[in-house]
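Much of what follows relies on a compact textual record of a protein's fold. The record below shows the convention in full:
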Amino acid sequence: MQIIPNAYFALWMTLPFLVTLFALNFLLVRPMREYLEGRDAAIHGARHDAEHIAHAADAKLADLNAQLARAREQAAAVRAAARQAAIHKESEVVDAARKQAESALETALEGISSEAASARSSLRDAAVALSNDIAGQVLGRRIDA
């Protein structure tokens, strides 16, 4: 039994092994490596594109939120201006109604006082006439006062 192999025989045994190794490398390992590297590049590219799209979407969302906030502020300003105009208009209408009511009240009071004065005058005249009639009937003669 020989422990050290024959160099010639070892060379002839390594030759089919190397041919098979190179053939497998050419037919199987290299295409598989290229496929995996391409897939890895596609995955990294897709991740990069997805991150870019996500950043763009975040920027758009922030812009839309800012526009929405500005629109809300403008709407609040318009509502406040409309509210102030309505309050001003209300105070004008109330003041006009108050002035009109005061004028109507003054006119009514003047009418009432003039009617009261004329009623007093007519009652006074009626009282004088009635008292003259009563005195005339009691005395039996006509009294002119």
About this structure: The radius of gyration is 59 Å. The chain has a mean pLDDT of 92. The chain is about 90% helix and 0% strand.
